[in-house]
């Protein structure tokens, strides 16, 4: 029997491989959500794995933007029944533990939505480097959104001298001196990603403990 191929060329094969990866990420996220609800994984394990899946999803979804404009439609076409995953990946954008910590924190007036917005903006900015989106007119809007979301949190949750705010301001100042079409060098891009990642880790550490 002649082998039936889904693709006609290398580009189509890569697209279907990406479809398979996207399907796997959604299914894995759905199983993780169910495991967390059933207390089969610890909060720390859940959060670490969920953050990784969200980052993978955002990176892959950006790369497939033209081929998969709607994840809901993708789920419908491939009969992907995973409502918990779709909510986590598309609506929330952050692990449930992050939402809970923000919502129950008595020491902060920051809402879960504000924290979620910061997390999403951190991840989006970091993903831009991974996708080689390093032109000033690509990076600056993402960094500006991150700066705005950090300001919205106020000083209730984060200290006034929070390193993330300082580093974001420094990068915005640096980008302002460059032309829109200018691109970060490889060294600058690595430093930019490093600064964002360290700031993100500091931000997550500043949130109340997941089990408190």
What does this structure look like?
- By secondary structure, the chain is an all-alpha fold.
- The longest helix has 28 residues.
- About 2% of the residues have low confidence.
- Helix 5 runs antiparallel to helix 6 and helix 8 packs antiparallel against helix 9.
- It has two domains: 85 residues, de novo design (two linked rop proteins) (Up-down Bundle); 106 residues, Four Helix Bundle (Hemerythrin (Met), subunit A), CATH 1.20.120.
Write a concise keyword list for the protein shown above.
212 residues, mainly alpha, de novo design (two linked rop proteins), Four Helix Bundle (Hemerythrin (Met), subunit A), flat
Concise overview:
With 212 residues, the chain is an all-alpha fold. It is built from 9 helices and no strands. The protein folds into 2 domains: 9-93, de novo design (two linked rop proteins), CATH 1.20.1440; 107-212, Four Helix Bundle (Hemerythrin (Met), subunit A) (Up-down Bundle), CATH 1.20.120.
């Amino acid at each position: 029997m002649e082998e039936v191929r889904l693709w006609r060329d290398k580009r189509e094969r890569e697209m279907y491989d990406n479809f398979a990866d996207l399907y796997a990420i959604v299914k894995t996220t759905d199983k993780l959500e169910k495991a967390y609800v059933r207390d089969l994984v610890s909060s720390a394990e859940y959060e670490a794995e969920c953050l990784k899946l969200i980052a993978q999803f955002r990176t892959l979804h950006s790369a497939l933007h033209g081929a998969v404009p709607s994840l809901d439609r993708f789920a419908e076409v491939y009969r992907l029944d995973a409502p918990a995953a779709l909510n986590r990946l598309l609506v929330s954008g952050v692990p449930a533990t992050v939402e809970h910590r923000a919502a129950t924190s008595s020491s902060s007036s920051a809402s879960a939505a504000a924290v979620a917005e910061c997390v999403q903006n951190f991840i989006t900015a970091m993903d831009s480097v991974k996708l080689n989106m390093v032109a000033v007119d690509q990076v600056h809007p993402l960094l500006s959104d991150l700066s705005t979301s950090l300001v919205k949190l106020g000083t209730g949750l984060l200290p006034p001298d929070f390193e993330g705010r300082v580093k974001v301001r420094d990068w915005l100042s640096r980008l302002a001196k460059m032309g829109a079409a200018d691109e970060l060098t490889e060294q600058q891009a690595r430093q930019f990603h490093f600064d964002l990642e360290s700031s993100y880790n500091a931000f997550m550490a500043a949130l109340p403990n997941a089990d408190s």
